[in-house]
Specification:
2 domains; alpha+beta; 1 helix; OB fold (Dihydrolipoamide Acetyltransferase, E2P)
């Protein structure tokens, strides 16, 4: 009788280990599917507030920082919400934003 219980406990232990290993592998594979963004590229799509009139250029506030910005499309007035659509990396680095339509 003791031998039968020992075999059952070994099978249960191995099954739990295999299940744990399977979950770890699946989570590891899914973690590698995410694209890592850094720098200004991570700002694309983020919302913020115009701190000055942006027509065509002004100041834009997002994530605790003030940025020089240029508007694409309809001008933004101070206090209006906008979304970052691009980043210009020429000599003058600035965000390109557009007005969020309510």
């Amino acid at each position: 009788m003791t031998t039968a219980w020992t075999i059952i406990w070994w099978i249960v232990g191995i099954a739990i280990f295999v299940i744990f290993l399977f979950i770890a592998v699946v989570k590891s594979i899914s973690a590698h599917k995410f694209e890592i963004k850094g720098g200004v590229e991570s700002l694309i799509g983020i919302k913020g507030i115009a701190k000055t009139d942006i027509n065509p250029r002004g100041k834009f506030y997002t994530h605790g920082e003030y940025w020089d910005a240029e508007v694409r499309g309809e001008p933004l007035k101070a206090g209006e919400k906008g979304r970052i659509v691009a980043f210009d990396q020429t000599d003058e680095q600035y965000l390109i934003v557009e007005k969020i339509k309510d």
